[in-house]
Amino acid sequence: MKKEEIEKLVEKGEMLPLMEEFYTIQGEGYHKGTAAYFIRIGGCDVGCHWCDVKESWDAEKHPPTATKTIVDNALKYSDTIVITGGEPLTWDMTTITKSLKEKGAKTHIETSGAYKLTGDWDWICLSPKKLKLPTAEVSKKAHELKVIVYNKSDFAFAEQQAEKVGENCILYLQPEWSVRDKIVPLIVEYVMKNPKWKVSLQTHKYLNIP
């Protein structure tokens, strides 16, 4: 297939730059501890300095893969599919979510919310970043808000983002892994003073699973 043809298919969401896919246990947020199939899509220009999957940033490094193939692979393992990145909303998620839901799967997304919301989602985990703030639509439709706490200033940022989500959105504060020993006590203290928030941990890293 010619490069131009591939680019058109990617633009329509009929192919996506697939970085990796794997069946594992959700380690974070509301669905932690449950089995799910993860699809990691390459491409992200949000640029968080503490990102633990920086190899996902350059979409050119990840081969465009037919969306149908991705869907067929996923459904061999689970009916709960988590699409993450990178930043999956860089791409049109309409085709992949439509295909998954037609076959009875539940669709979850983990996103910074920095781009237009596409796709049909059963669960939206919004993890906003200061460098590119989420759109109003993603904030309003988010089921959970998961703010990564790297330093004390992130608490004020978390409160700003909490004002933008719907009233039923679940609020989480999650320590950035590399500074967890320093940050966890601060989060615990903050949540005890502000119980609308909950603590989220990257439990998959404690369990030493992908």
Automatic annotation (TrEMBL):
Domain of life: Bacteria
Record's keyword annotation contains S-adenosyl-L-methionine: yes
Residues bound to [4Fe-4S] cluster: C44, C48, C51
Protein's pathway: Purine metabolism; 7-cyano-7-deazaguanine biosynthesis
A GO MF label: carbon-nitrogen lyase activity
Co-factor requirement: [4Fe-4S] cluster; S-adenosyl-L-methionine; Mg(2+)
Domain Radical SAM core: 40-113
Catalytic activities: 6-carboxy-5,6,7,8-tetrahydropterin + H(+) = 7-carboxy-7-carbaguanine + NH4(+)
Cofactor binding, note field: Binds 1 [4Fe-4S] cluster. The cluster is coordinated with 3 cysteines and an exchangeable S-adenosyl-L-methionine. Binds 1 S-adenosyl-L-methionine per subunit.
Example GO BP: tRNA queuosine(34) biosynthetic process
Residues annotated as binding substrate: I25, Q26, G27, R40, T84, P210
Binding site for S-adenosyl-L-methionine: W50, C51, D52, G86, S127, P128, K129
EC number: 4.3.99.3
Keywords, sorted A to Z: 4Fe-4S, Iron, Iron-sulfur, Lyase, Magnesium, Metal-binding, Queuosine biosynthesis, S-adenosyl-L-methionine
Function: Catalyzes the complex heterocyclic radical-mediated conversion of 6-carboxy-5,6,7,8-tetrahydropterin (CPH4) to 7-carboxy-7-deazaguanine (CDG), a step common to the biosynthetic pathways of all 7-deazapurine-containing compounds.
Self-association state and partner proteins as the record states: Homodimer.
Protein family membership: Belongs to the radical SAM superfamily. 7-carboxy-7-deazaguanine synthase family.
Listed name of the protein: 7-carboxy-7-deazaguanine synthase
